[in-house]
Design brief:
With 269 residues, this protein is of the alpha/beta class. The chain has a domain of 185 residues: Rossmann fold (3-Layer(aba) Sandwich), CATH 3.40.50.150. Helices cover 38% and strands 24% of the residues. Strands 1, 2, 3, 4, 5, 6, 7 and 8 form an 8-stranded mixed β-sheet that branches. Helix 2 packs parallel to helix 3 and helix 6 crosses helix 9. The longest helix has 16 residues. The protein is globular, with a radius of gyration of 18 Å. Bound molecules: S-adenosylmethionine (SAM). The site of S-adenosylmethionine (SAM) has 24 residues, from helix 2 and helix 3.
Length: 269
């Protein structure tokens, strides 16, 4: 059993690192925005916006007649998002399962990019998304695929299996979804499922330290946080050896697989 997820481990350093290394999530997020066909003038809600890299790109797309709000529980990341926004979008602290201050039927599009696998009550999050969408509005998420793990997670899982007391360490996110579960959740929240596929991404990292920094920043400090200093160092050393074996011409090559799922709120009868 891995330790529970904490939202208290974030730091200025991790938030800044995410801003630099989260370009991987940014790039697949742009693909989600394409699948959702976000248009100029639309109102968009970005749930789990992090430091606002994708939120900013969406605000560029919706333009001056659009409206974009990012919500994230991590205050340090929201601060960076607000700095980035410069009035072009808004960002505030909040959680996917508790969007009580967001009005009903206001948005054209709601999305969660690399977020829903961290959310304990995913149905509540999607029900909120449904509520705040206009009739006919679109929702979508990308999530780590339970049936198609990232290369890094495969390597790490094999490594952690060596020692019983390493089992407490988290691999990936706690609430990863299968494609089937992604569709069931969208339907249970009231959506007609419009898209459901797994896409693969080829990542390349210059160093093992960069892989580890990316994993820590993406998990807001939860990556290997269950291990004490000495055990953590040992696992990082072993992980480094395993990852160096994957070095190719572009650097350390790791594939990531993400489920892309979208749904439409039925139009008003
Ligand atoms: C990997 S980051 C993705 C950030 C951003 N969406 C992007 O595409 O770069 C995951 C984000 O999920 C947020 N998150 C975690 N639990 C959440 C929750 N319960 N509700 C909303 N966001 C959550 C984290 O704070 C973090 O910013």
């Amino acid at each position: 059993m891995s330790t529970p997820l904490s939202l208290e481990l974030d730091s200025v350093t991790l938030a800044e690192q995410y801003d630099r290394l989260g370009t991987r999530q940014f790039h697949h997020g742009l693909e989600l925005i394409d699948v959702l066909a976000v248009q100029s003038g639309e109102k968009v809600l970005d749930i789990g916006c992090g430091t606002g890299l994708l939120t900013e790109a969406v605000a560029e797309r919706t333009g001056p007649d659009g409206e974009v709000l990012g919500i994230d529980p991590l205050a340090l990341r929201v601060e960076l998002a607000r700095k980035r926004a410069q009035g072009r979008f808004d960002a505030r602290v909040g959680r996917a399962e508790a969007l009580h201050d967001v009005p009903d039927a206001h948005y054209d599009v709601v999305y969660f990019n690399s977020v829903i696998h961290w959310v304990p009550d995913q149905l509540a999050a999607l029900q909120h998304a449904f509520r705040v969408l206009k009739p006919g509005g679109r929702a979508g998420f990308t999530t780590m695929s339970q049936e198609a793990p990232h290369d890094l997670h495969r390597v790490l899982r094999a490594l952690l299996a060596r020692e019983p007391h390493w089992q407490a360490a988290r691999v990936g996110a706690p609430h990863q979804l299968t494609q089937e579960r992604a569709a069931l959740l969208l339907a249970a929240a009231g959506f007609n499922v419009t898209h459901n596929e797994i896409r693969e991404f080829d990542d390349a990292f210059d160093t093992v330290d960069e892989v580890i920094a990316f994993s820590r920043a993406s998990s807001f400090g939860n990556f290997l946080s269950a291990l004490d200093e000495a055990e953590g160092a040992r696992v990082r050393q072993l992980l480094g050896d395993a990852l160096e074996a994957k070095r190719g011409p572009r650097g350390i090559a790791l594939k990531r697989r993400m489920t892309f799922a979208t749904g439409r709120k039925p139009a008003a009868q």
